[in-house]
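User: For my dataset I need records formatted as: sequence, then structure tokens, nothing else. Please produce one.
Assistant:
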Amino acid sequence: MATAVIARRRSKKKILVAGFLVFLAALLSTGAAVYERPGMFVTAIQRLRVWRMGLQIRSVMLGPYRINYMVAGEGKPVVLVHGLAGRAEDWLPMVRALTSHGFKVYAPDLLGFGRSSRPDVEYSISQQEEIVRQFMDSQQLQQADVAGWSMGGWITLKFAADHPDRVRRLILLSSAGLKFDPVNVAALRPKTEADLAHMMSILTPHPPVIPSFYAQWFLRDFAAEDWVVERSLRSMLTGKDIMDDKMGTVKMPVMIAWGRQDVLTPPSIGEQMRQAMPQSVFFMFDDTGHLAPNECSARLGPHIVEFLNAEPPMPAGIREEPCR
């Protein structure tokens, strides 16, 4: 009897040890895979966040082009337009604030970016504006609140100026679109780990330290879209879509938000926009740069909801506060 009990205990111990060894092997294997293919795990984490937020990933054909987009929530429509070399997932920190306050969020990947088509075209601001118009048509959105970040702000500002009846309220976040000396534009096309570190120092006053194996994945990702970024920048630098003196038709309520330490698109651009659209309210966040919509999402999100819900519209003026 005692011998049988001892035997069973030894058998259980062997099973537990074997199970632990299998777990350890799987853990080591996963660690090696993270090291060798970090992009797969970054993507998996993003997809988990998308799923937990109730976002659905869909696509729609706009003429010959397939445009990927994310949609979530129920209520008043809000269209979110990302920046250069960005994608719909850039808006994840803002999505929960909007969907939890009665908004239906649409976040498309612009032409050439994310999972949308990459045709051999110019990638001008005008072309991306037309993509936004066609996307809204495809979703039967005659009018929506529209937000744009960086290059996306330029696109949405032009859309609001050209189609003011389609935009209920406009949000511009660290937006491009006015004439200025883009001294740091080359930083947006990193080729080496040093370039990547420099780009992050341009985007934020608190640049993260990126491990080398992650940096290599980021660089491969940037390399895949570099020709699209190059064409987009080339078109922007011609000045043909510059919005200086073209904001007279933008009469809807406007919210402008900026990071005080933004050295890519300086806050002076936001101030010029505020003066050109005197009905606008300007939020300035201290201790952040071009990534304010991510770094200051806990503060910015509620202000966006407040702006979109305000009746009558939020009064014009300047509001300054810390990022954190």
